Amino acid sequence: METRLKISGHPVHPMLMTLPLGLFVCAALFDFGAVIGGLAFLGQVGYWTIVAGLFAAVLAAGAGMVDLWDVPGGAGKRRSVAYLLVNLVMVALYALVCMVRVETQTRAPGAAAFLLELLALAAGGYGAWLGATLVRQFRIGVVAETEPEFDAFEALGESQTP
């Protein structure tokens, strides 16, 4: 199944999905530094990284919804809905962490907020795995090949046998 939402022939959702995941991983690293007693500003950097990740997740979810409408019924559709739900759980957990931390002066996470953040990150990792299986197993979002496979040896006029 080929996606409708493309830029220069490349699907948009996989490109957008990497941004919130990367931001959430970075936020967990900054927050880990704040939890173990690192520099005072690490908690603030982690908080604002979560905020940026939430905005990026909204953009990625919009692109994902466009793709979800075109997925044919069956196992691929069920896997796509599971992917959507897992990623929504991740975003909801990060939004909860963000709301808990907005009231603190330093924006540093407590132990409970950090554990919730790690749970959200685990959900995001599972969501990424589900997304990868959508491409590999169900060929969702993959452009159908129209040209024959390029063989570098044939193009050079060389034989592959010794």
TrEMBL record:
Residues 9-143 form the DUF2231 domain. Keywords: Membrane, Transmembrane, Transmembrane helix. It comes from the Bacteria. The chain crosses the membrane at residues 21-41, 47-69, 81-102, 108-129. This is DUF2231 domain-containing protein. It comes from Phytohabitans aurantiacus.
